[in-house]
Design a protein that fits this description.
This protein is of the alpha/beta class and 282 residues long. The protein has a single domain (8-259), classed as Rossmann fold (3-Layer(aba) Sandwich). The chain has nine helices and seven strands. The longest helix is centred in the middle third of the chain and has 29 residues, at 112-140. The protein is globular, with a radius of gyration of 18 Å. The two termini are 32 Å apart.
Length: 282
């Protein structure tokens, strides 16, 4: 029996990057999936689409469906969990809140409209989806919610502040992820003992998804880059953790080291030869 066989999952932001890779690995491990992103077809300038993720996931033989939804719009995102419950006979086991709005700009001129979008997608959308998913999970006494966070949520040491170019423009994004960490822990504390596990997980090093590569890829050395396979492996560990693993603000490689989890390929068929790190372009 495969690790996630018979479990039903939602993954947001599933058209590319960490969301697409996590979806592929969950399907490889037997999960049924609802893949969510704003558009089903190709993005206007980034590689990847829900259609491509769908094709990669369906080759494993599980049920995989897509839903176009705008996480910044409360009406649009309100249909996600009900649609999943309809598809999967009323049962949702795993919710991966991966979608994020990452718009970097200097704080002194950061527009209000962009601030609102950032917090809508990075904070309010995960909260809405958690609230929609929780009743069924609580009733069954089991469920896993994983919210993707970021090291940018942590306070910077200083003064003096030693900022990279990206560090000068990432404040609003980091603030939204700090809010996500805190509210995730509050949910977990409130629901302790129900069997629902709620955690955030963040990369220890940069994961060069399509968007990240475009924004900061040229500012990072190879030893600052974490393999996509390692990040996905850590997410799966949180999607399958015991009841006591809840309320954590977890770090990908730290968790893998703690649990001595080997890193496997995205199709789950073999050890990932690159391990935790990956050289640029491989």
């Amino acid at each position: 029996m495969k690790r996630f066989e018979g479990r039903n999952a939602i993954v947001t932001g599933a058209s590319r990057g960490i969301g697409a890779a996590t979806s592929e690995r969950l399907a490889a491990e037997g999960a049924n999936l609802l893949l969510v992103a704003r558009t089903v077809e190709q993005h206007d300038h980034l590689a990847g689409s829900l259609r491509e993720t769908l094709d990669r996931c369906r080759r494993f033989g599980t049920r995989v469906e897509t839903l176009a939804a705008d996480l910044a719009d409360e009406t649009s995102r309100a249909k996600i969990v009900p649609h999943a419950l309809e598809l999967f006979g009323g049962r949702l086991d795993i919710l991966v809140n991966n979608a994020a709005a990452a718009m970097y700009a200097p704080n002194a001129t950061y527009p209000l409209k962009r601030r609102r979008i950032t917090f809508e997608v990075n904070v309010h959308a995960p909260v809405d989806l958690m609230q929609a998913a929780l009743p069924g999970m609580i009733e069954r006494g089991e469920g896993w919610i994983v919210n993707l966070s970021s090291g940018s949520a942590r306070l910077m040491p200083g003064p003096p502040f030693d900022l990279t170019p990206a560090g000068r423009t990432i404040g609003v994004y980091g603030a939204s992820k700090a809010a996500l960490n805190r509210i995730t822990q509050a949910f977990a504390a409130e629901l302790e003992g129900t069997g629902v596990r709620i955690n955030t997980i963040e990369p220890r090093a940069a994961v060069l998804s399509e968007g990240a590569a475009e924004l900061v890829g040229d500012q990072l050395s190879d030893d600052q880059i974490e393999s996509m396979e390692a990040m996905v492996e850590s997410i799966l560990a949180v999607c399958d953790g015991p009841p006591e693993r809840t309320g954590g603000v977890l770090v990908s490689l730290d968790l893998l080291d703690e649990l001595a989890i080997p890193i496997r390929s995205l199709d789950g068929s073999r050890p990932h030869p690159g391990g935790q790190r990956v050289e640029r372009g491989t």
